[in-house]
Task: structure prediction
Amino acid sequence: MNPDSERALADAVHDLDGAPDDLDAVELVDQLQIHGRLSALRERDLAPAVVRELRYEGDAGFAAGVVGRLKPSRVLPRIASLAAAACFLVLTGWVLFSGPADAARPRALLIAGRLPLGEGDRAVAARLERLGFAVDARTPDAFDPAGRALVAVSSTVLAESMRDVADRLKAGLRDLPIPVIAWEPRLFPELGFVALGQHGVDWAAEPMTSLSIEAPAHPLAAGLSGSIEVTLPGEQLSWGRTGPGAIRVASLPGMPARTALFGFERGAPLEGGRPAPARRVGLFLFDTTAARLTEPGGRLFDAAVTWATGGKP
Result:
């Protein structure tokens, strides 16, 4: 971090430490934006759970508790920065020396909240590689779908950044004529998967381990039926309240309106009436779910990628 950013971060932390206990988080963020200090609070400075709540606050609303969680935020220790740099160098070397082998493979663009990739996004990248894709991982700032056969949008894009990621991705994906898979429920309305609505009512993520298959005959179901354990305990599953244009494949157990795996055929009406430019899939993953998938959960992920891109399961 350069000296100007360090000073900005120090000023921002000072504001947080001195914030009144009843200061609404929206006001706090507004003040930091006014003083040009919000840009100093990057993903390495705030816990993902706190950043996500700040991104969600316009939908559900919350107050002083988030301010209290922000106060202890600090820059990561030097050793963590060095470790991240080492990972980046390893990844860069792999890209440089594996280029020729990747040339013949279709390319998948994985949009994530940070680089190097976190645990869940690394697992997604590995599964895409096993499915035959060469994976290009990018943050939303470097969104460029040219030459890709698939775009996968991770939930970490909002867990890691307080910038205006949703609008950027909505603009970039709105008319994109290639398949898109997404598992950030806050982006489901932005992508036309669900109607604009409220967090916890129309879209969210729940601490669940299983799904109920609603359409076992559809390729997205991967030949599965009934109640399926898709992840180990301790993870969350994304869901949305989908409209009539969606193919509803799996829902949360006992909550059929909360669809956790769904798709849109090319030309099918998205919410708002606009036709889907290519196949779209809303997936049940969340930030780290992909790292703890069961065998059936992995099959559902693979089927989602295969169906979206028009391949055979």
Notes: The chain has two domains: 3-70, 106-308. The mean pLDDT is 79.
